């Protein structure tokens, strides 16, 4: 199924009078505060969030999986699903592949298919946390950190293969997330494991194309429960610094212990020019991979406040980060969930753009925490939904993507096309 512009226009026309009223109200308010509405809208439109190829089907836990039907069975169908999202929200213009979950067999065809949906290929992700059927050596006790040099070489070779696939598609970055770690005290030598990881990453880095970046993702626990080799941003940053200029830290929101000050991590990494990429999701307990903004929208806003400050800082040497959603969907329709996530990201971004940075800096210099809080919360409590909707409509997408998804019976159509029992591969 493809959504046609006329279908979107018809839905938008119906919602237009109500939208106009709310948009005029906020435009008027922002203009009175000297905030240029047109440039806000442009910024919202150019903020594109990659969708991972593994998030388009229902995920499961080890206790069960409840697929809803109509899931994409092939990479082409996964691209079609991201195309549907992008047609609805004009904010998901890229797809990120996990190899070997999604190997592009016929590259020319896959590229043309993605281009027909106006989609780019974002970072490619390697996978050395599972054993594949044809694999010689097991990753049970680690990959890039393994005590056996043959396992390490196999993992390095896999990363090189992932880069080759990415090059063919036009990707420019490799995301490395390692499950490597141990579940019992004494099981692994911390220092040797980290040293071997660094050495293995050095091999990959040295052979990476010159215009590529490497993103190193950290996570405190899971799948191992005592120690993870790259457990936190500090370890990731240490590795990235030792590797060189084109290695960066990747922050996945779910990869922190409860109450971690993620916005401070963002600020520190950007100050060092080392924030390469971002995986959005939300959580209550750990790596819950829930819909972005579902649990802690204020935290998301505070994180965006730092991201915007970092991106607006002319002296910053931080490159423009790669944005991606990284979530799994056990209860919700994956496409509806992704629409909600993209919207939550756009809202937090728009709110962060409203922060009066000069006034905030003055309040900080004057040691006025009351005023600083007022300034932040004034932005956070602004209803920016009409701004984001306007940005979408101007870009040819739906004023209300979720309502459009339901009115156009997208899932019902997909179930009809692909069957009730079709299940996506991946997570
Ligand atoms: C690990 C992770 C990482 C993987 C993805 C499937 O928890 O966040 O980014 O590649 O999930
Ligand atoms: Mn992730
Ligand atoms: Mn994760």
Keywords:
Xyl_isomerase-like_sf, 48% helix, binds manganese (II) ion, three-stranded parallel β-sheet, binds 6-deoxy-beta-L-fructofuranose, TIM Barrel, 427 residues, isomerase activity, manganese, L-rhamnose isomerase / sugar isomerase, metal ion binding
Any overview of this molecule?
The structure is a single chain. With 427 residues, this protein is of the alpha/beta class. It has a single domain (5-418), classed as TIM Barrel (Alpha-Beta Barrel), CATH 3.20.20.150. 48% of the residues lie in helices and 10% in strands. The strands form four sheets. Strands 6-7-9-11-12-13 form a six-stranded parallel sheet. The protein has a three-stranded parallel sheet with strand order 1-4-5, with no helix packed on it. A two-stranded antiparallel sheet has the order 2-3. The model has no long low-confidence stretch (mean pLDDT 97). Bound molecules: 6-deoxy-beta-L-fructofuranose (LRH) and manganese (II) ion (2 copies). 6-deoxy-beta-L-fructofuranose (LRH) is lined by residues 54, 125, 177, 217, 219, 252, 279, 287, 326, 427. Residues 54, 125, 177, 217, 219, 252, 279, 287, 326, 427 line the site of 6-deoxy-beta-L-fructofuranose (LRH).
Number of domains: 1
Shape type: globular
| Computed CA radius of gyration, to the nearest angstrom | 22 Å
Mean pLDDT comes to 97
Going by helix content, strand content and strand pairing, the class is alpha/beta
Count, helices: 15
């Amino acid at each position: 199924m493809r959504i046609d512009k006329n279908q979107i226009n018809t839905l938008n026309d119906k919602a237009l009078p109500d939208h106009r009223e709310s948009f005029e109200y906020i435009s008027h308010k922002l203009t009175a505060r000297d905030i240029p509405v047109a440039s806000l809208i442009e910024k919202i439109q150019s903020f594109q969030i990659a969708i991972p190829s593994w998030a388009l089907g229902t995920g499961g836990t080890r206790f069960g999986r409840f697929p809803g039907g109509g899931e994409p069975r092939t990479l082409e169908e996964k691209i079609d699903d991201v195309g549907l999202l992008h047609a609805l929200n004009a904010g998901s213009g890229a797809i990120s592949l996990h190899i070997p979950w999604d190997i592009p067999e016929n590259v020319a065809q896959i590229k043309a298919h993605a281009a027909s949906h106006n989609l780019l290929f974002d970072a490619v992700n390697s996978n050395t946390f599972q054993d594949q059927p044809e694999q010689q050596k097991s990753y049970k006790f680690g990959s890039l950190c393994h005590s056996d040099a043959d396992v390490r070489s196999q993992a390095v070779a896999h990363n090189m293969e992932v880069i080759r696939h990415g090059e063919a598609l036009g990707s420019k970055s490799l995301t490395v997330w390692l499950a490597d770690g141990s579940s019992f005290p004494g099981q692994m030598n911390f220092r040797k494991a980290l040293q071997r990881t660094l050495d293995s990453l050095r091999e990959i880095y040295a052979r990476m194309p010159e215009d590529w970046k490497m993103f190193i993702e950290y996570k405190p626990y899971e799948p191992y429960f005592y120690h993870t080799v790259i457990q936190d941003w500090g370890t990731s940053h240490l590795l990235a610094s030792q590797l060189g200029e084109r290695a960066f830290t990747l922050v996945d929101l779910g990869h922190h212990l409860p109450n971690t000050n993620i916005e401070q991590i963002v600020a520190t990494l950007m100050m060092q020019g080392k924030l390469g990429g971002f995986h959005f999701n939300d959580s209550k307990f750990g790596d819950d991979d829930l819909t972005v903004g579902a649990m802690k929208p204020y935290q998301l806003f505070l994180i965006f406040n730092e991201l915007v400050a970092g991106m607006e800082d002319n002296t910053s040497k931080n490159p423009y980060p790669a944005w991606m959603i990284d979530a799994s969907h056990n209860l919700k329709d994956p496409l509806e969930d992704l629409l909600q996530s993209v919207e939550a990201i756009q809202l937090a971004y728009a709110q962060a753009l409203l922060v009066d940075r000069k006034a905030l800096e003055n309040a900080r210099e004057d040691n006025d925490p009351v005023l600083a809080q007022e300034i932040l919360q004034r932005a956070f409590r602004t209803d920016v939904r009409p701004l984001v909707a306007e940005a979408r409509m101007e870009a040819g997408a739906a004023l209300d993507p979720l309502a459009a998804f339901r009115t156009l019976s997208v899932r019902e159509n997909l179930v009809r096309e692909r069957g009730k029992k079709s299940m996506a591969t991946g997570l």
